[in-house]
Amino acid sequence: MTKMNRETVVTEALDLLDEVGLDTVSTRRLAKRLGVEQPSLYWYFRTKKDLLAAMAQAAMAPHATAPLPTPGDDWREWFLENTRSFRRTLLLRRDGARLHAGSTPTGDLDRVRHKLGFLIASGVPEREARMAMLAAGRFTVGSVLEEQADARPDGTELPDDVPVIDHEPAFEAGLTLILDGMTHRTAAQDTPAGA
């Protein structure tokens, strides 16, 4: 039996996720993996939803601990790298995007505020900064959902008539469009009316 604490339960649950996928993760399977009775998991997580939320937060640790922007950083380069970091983190776990989708960054709110403050201080209008962060986040989750759905864990090949998408260049193209929109909106704000 594994010595249990909240962190161990989450770590084992994430390992189970990587092995069997989100649809097959259950508290019954997790309890068996830990060598305990299923009700003992409720000491740490009252519901499966609580467990999934903790798993989502733990899975985001690589992105959540990435360096925050500093005043001297170029906001465009930072925005690109921040979004790429988010994508890389989602891809670290099987079904990482599905696990993350719909989760609330409760432990990350100060970091989100810092990032928004950085964009605003860099000259991006507040509304555009908020919408761009939201759009980039949702675009990234959607892109990774599609990428992970295309991964075929059973090793079967796609039929020849199904086009294969090269996900990274497609992601980069979409990310560039979001950045171009932000840059355009920011430049439009800086241009005096009638100029």
From TrEMBL:
Gene3D superfamilies: Homeodomain-like, Tetracycline Repressor, domain 2. It holds the Pfam family TetR_N. Residues 3-63 form the HTH tetR-type domain. It comes from Streptomyces axinellae. This is TetR/AcrR family transcriptional regulator C-terminal domain-containing protein. Residues 26-45 bind DNA. The lineage of its organism: Bacteria, Bacillati, Actinomycetota, Actinomycetes, Kitasatosporales. It comes from the Bacteria. InterPro entries: DNA-bd_HTH_TetR-type_CS (IPR023772), Homeodomain-like_sf (IPR009057), HTH-type_TetR-like_transc_reg (IPR050109), HTH_TetR (IPR001647), Repressor_TetR_C (IPR004111), Tet_transcr_reg_TetR (IPR003012), Tet_transcr_reg_TetR-rel_C_sf (IPR036271). The keyword Transcription regulation applies. PROSITE patterns: HTH_TETR_1 (PS01081), HTH_TETR_2 (PS50977). Keywords: DNA-binding, Repressor, Transcription, Transcription regulation. SUPFAM superfamilies: Homeodomain-like (SSF46689), Tetracyclin repressor-like, C-terminal domain (SSF48498).
